[in-house]
Design brief:
Blueprint lengths: L1 E14 L12 E7 L2 E5 L10 E10 L5 E8 L7 E9 H5 L5 E6 L12 E9 L6 E10 L12 E7 L2 E4 L10 E9 L7 E8 L7 E9 H7 L1 E7 L16 E13 L6 H12 L8 H8 L6 H14 L3 H15 L12 H32 L14 E2 L6 E2 L2 H24 L7 H17 L8 H20 L13 H18 L4 H6 L7 H18 L4 H13 L5 E9 L11 E7 L3 E5 L8 E4 L3 E6 L2 H4 L4 E7 L5 E7 L3 H14 L9 E2 L4 E2 L2 E2 L13 E2 L5 E2 L8 H31 L8 H24 L18
Antiparallel strand pairs: 1-4, 1-16, 2-3, 2-5, 4-30, 5-6, 7-16, 8-9, 8-15, 9-12, 10-11, 10-13, 13-14, 17-18, 19-20, 19-25, 20-21, 21-22, 23-24, 24-25, 26-29, 27-28
Helix pairs in contact: 3-6, 5-6, 5-7, 5-17, 6-7, 6-9, 7-8, 7-10, 8-13, 9-10, 9-14, 10-11, 11-13, 17-18
GO molecular function: GTPase activator activity; zinc ion binding
Organism: Sarcophilus harrisii (Tasmanian devil)
Pfam families: BTK, C2, PH, RasGAP
Length: about 800
């Protein structure tokens, strides 16, 4: 049994931000920190005080997660980026909103006394002797303290206060991982024990000392226990009252914390088997009643999440094609008007969206990538709508003339036709690149629609059914917002965004098979009409080839795919290996890295022979490196067992925060079940006969910080986690079981009245009874074996919340 926490984040938009540039505007972006560690950086939105980001992330966390902070920054090309303000949400606040927190939050000013981080290791005890009792506080060490000095570290010392008396520790120079091992004693006031305060400070020779955080203890609680020891979060000083509430603008967020207790696999087998039985049988044998009831009782609010969980569950069972085929049949069964087929946000539509993203993202990148990159690089002005055309001067110096509206539109049409030609050509060549499971699924969809609407007037409908997913719900959204599909690192500027929108509209018209209705919506798209008609013909040819896949070919392709060690992540990184005892110089060499399910390898170029590799089973940790170590905040370290069995470290430099966290996430996920994963590590480097982080002099000494191998970002190519997916499906079904029972009785009543066809009562009722029994058994298993809170700090009960 394991407890898994995850945080779903949607950073929507900001408003009323203050101007930070001389132009009277700002270039805002957000940095998301989990327990003060930067995890995510959004794209910059240029020249605006009301930015829209619309970016979504999911972060997997350890149960000890404490808080998430959103910093709104202003990007500056020539100087340090300005901090506009921040929003902080603690675990306790998020726990008060089990369905997620959603809304606008005022940005708060950054107060140095509130910008604290890290933990401190303390032992508290009451000592009895001949005279009065003593209160003894031993300060061992601290980790991950805030960096207050220009050298990327601090000079920390501890100040202990009790009953009006103060004692101080020695100062540890240039370290955010200090070790004191000092003890302080006070005479205990037995009549009024009061509180003890331990404060951490950064010592400064010239200026005022900087506050690093504090912990306060209720001594009355200690009197019962006599002795307690543990790690404690450093808390900020008491917040100052502010009169400028809202003056820094606001941030609209959606944040959802979820804690899941995942049982051993055997507990989920009855549920998984029951759902698999549903999709294995043909509709003649079984009407898919359980899946139908799940769809009927899933609200629009959570339909996408349920669809994604079901898709992952059936992908793991090798039954995704059968599951989607059942959904196709259920939707066709209730579709009367052909033009409404798969146009609603049904479970079938949402499941296909999730399926394409999970199984086809690499395919999407290969098809759309070159054209998207070309649009971003060329930055051409494109406009077809006469009401939005900007007339500009053209020509060389001395020969300026004003371009006419018709000339702008004609030139724009030519540019768009060139882009569309590239897209259509890439799509046409991509049949063999498309994953076999996607091709087989589209074959089933094509077949089902053809069987249900055999009339000649619906001859285009089977093609539209495929393009409604491939073009309208996959290609077009990715063209309009390439960053959200990982095609680009940054959002498009206004000009590029308009070009992408027009391209997406053209692809949508092609996907609709150039119907009269789609053409009438925006008559100003007429200049692209010849290209759209040509695209319709090419799409039909492409779909015909795409679905031309036999069962044997599908199995052969899938088997070949499974035999290959496909890259989990790949790309250029800079490497430096630590060797010897001398100083490390910041000399990184650029190489191409490839991470598969077996090894991390690198070579000079993507196509050249692999120079070396690290077997995944030998990796013991993947963590960040302190900025001061190499003068860069984007360096990670991979600790692994070398050929001799001794631990070795490879240092890799990434180009930005997001790339760093994506590589760390990918490495941590594929090494999740490794034996011998480290619980601690050194965030610094061994230089000058000592570790730069904690100043320990033994190279093999225990790490001074805890590893963060459970902090990962969810990505489209994540390894499947069957137990977690089964748990998420169970939790949803548990919440709607009463509604499912009511819905089933309602269907029975309609059937008895002759208003709907027979739904095979006996089989359906038997399946429903089994489902309720399975849910009851799982609920009982959760109750009988609750997860202990051993991984949380036991002695936080002594701490006063500040």
């Amino acid at each position: 049994m394991a407890k898994r926490s995850s945080l779903s984040l949607r950073i929507i938009e900001g408003k009323n931000l203050p101007a930070k540039d001389i132009t009277g505007s700002s270039d805002p972006y957000c940095i998301v920190k989990i327990d003060n560690e930067p995890i995510i950086r959004t794209a910059t939105v240029w020249k605006t005080l009301s930015p829209f980001w619309g970016e979504e992330y999911k972060v997997h966390l350890p149960p000890t997660f404490h808080s998430v902070s959103f910093y709104v920054m202003d990007e500056d090309a020539l100087s340090r980026d300005d901090v506009i303000g921040k929003v902080c949400l603690t675990r306790d606040v998020l726990a008060e909103h089990p369905k997620g927190y959603s809304g606008w939050l005022h940005l708060k000013e950054i107060d140095p006394d509130e910008e604290v981080q890290g933990e401190i290791h303390l032992q508290m005890e009451i000592v009895k002797g001949q005279g009065p009792q003593k209160l003894r506080c031993t300060v061992f060490e601290a980790r991950d303290l805030a960096r207050k000095d220009r050298n990327g570290a601090s000079d920390p010392f501890v100040r202990v206060r009790y009953n009006g008396k103060t004692q101080e520790s020695s100062v540890v120079k240039k370290s955010c991982y200090p070790r004191w091992n000092e003890t302080f004693e006070f005479e205990l006031d037995e009549s009024a024990p009061g509180t003890l305060c331990v404060e951490a400070w950064d010592w400064d020779l010239v200026s005022k000392n900087d506050f690093l955080g504090k912990v306060m203890f209720n001594i009355h609680g200690l009197q019962a226990a006599q002795r307690e020891e543990g790690w404690f979060w450093l808390r900020p000083d008491q917040s100052k009252k502010r009169v400028d509430e809202g003056s820094l603008g606001s941030l609209q967020l959606q944040v959802w914390l979820r804690d899941e207790t995942v049982l051993p696999s055997s507990h989920y087998q009855p549920l998984v088997q029951l759902l698999c039985q549903e999709v294995k049988l043909s509709p003649q044998e079984h009407p898919g009643q359980l899946i139908s009831l799940i769809e009927e009782t899933t609200t629009a609010e959570c339909r996408q999440e349920v669809a994604t969980n079901m898709v992952k569950l059936f992908l793991g069972q090798g039954l995704i094609k059968e599951f989607l085929d059942l959904l196709f049949q259920l939707e066709l069964r209730r579709t009367v008007e052909a033009n409404t087929l798969f146009r609603s946000n049904s479970l079938a539509s949402k499941s296909m969206e999730s399926f394409l993203k999970i199984s086809g993202m690499q395919y999407l990148h290969s098809v759309l990538g070159p054209t998207i990159n070309r649009v971003f690089e060329e930055k051409k002005y494109v406009e077809l709508d006469p009401s939005k055309v900007e007339i500009k001067d053209v020509g060389c110096s001395g020969l300026h003339r004003i371009q006419t509206e018709s000339e702008v539109i004609e030139q724009s049409a030519q540019t768009l036709q060139s882009y569309l030609g590239g897209l259509l050509s890439a799509i046409g060549r991509s049949v063999k690149m498309c994953p076999a499971v996607i091709r087989a699924t589209f074959r089933q969809l094509f077949k089902r629609v053809q069987e249900h609407f055999p009339e000649n007037k619906h001859q285009n409908l089977k093609f539209i059914a495929v393009t409604s997913f491939l073009c309208l719900r996959f290609f077009s959204p990715a063209i309009m917002a390439p960053k959200l599909f990982h095609l680009r690192e940054k959002h498009a500027d206004a000009r590029t965004s308009r070009t992408l929108l027009l391209l997406a509209k053209a692809i949508q018209n092609m996907g609709n098979m150039d119907t009269v209705a789609s053409r009438a919506k925006e008559a100003w798209m007429e200049p692209l009409q010849p290209m759209v008609q040509q695209g319709v013909t090419q799409l039909k040819e492409f779909i015909t080839k795409l679905i031309d896949i036999e069962e044997k070919e599908e199995l052969d392709l899938q088997r070949a795919l499974n035999l290959q060690a496909l890259p989990v992540k790949e790309g250029p990184l800079f490497i430096h290996k630590a060797k010897g005892k001398g100083p490390l110089l910041p000399s990184f060499k650029k190489l191409h890295f490839s991470l598969t399910s077996e090894a991390l390898s690198f070579a000079k170029t993507p196509s050249s022979k692999k120079m070396s590799f690290i077997t995944l089973a030998n990796i013991q940790a993947a963590e960040k490196v302190e900025e001061k170590s190499f003068g860069s905040s984007h360096v990670m370290q991979i600790i692994y067992a070398g050929d001799t069995g001794q631990s070795e470290t490879a240092y890799l430099q990434c180009k930005c925060m997001n790339e760093l966290n994506q590589w760390l996430s990918a490495l941590r996920k594929v090494c999740l079940n490794n034996q011998g994963m480290l619980g601690s590590y050194h965030p610094g480097i061994f230089r000058g006969e000592k570790w730069s982080c904690c100043h320990q002099k033994e190279r093999t000494s225990l790490g001074c910080d805890k590893t963060r191998n459970r902090v990962t970002l969810q990505e489209w190519n994540d390894p499947l986690d069957p137990d977690l997916e089964a748990q998420l499906v169970y939790r949803h079904l548990l919440g709607v079981q009463d509604t499912m029972r009511e819905k089933y009785l309602e269907l029975r009543a309609l059937e008895a009245a002759g208003n709907i066809p027979n739904i095979q009562n006996e089989a359906a009722e038997d399946g429903l009874t089994q489902l309720f029994q399975v849910l009851q058994d799982l609920e009982r298993a959760h109750r009988s074996g609750p997860l202990t809170t051993a991984d949380r700090e036991k002695n936080h009960l002594l701490e006063l919340q500040t």
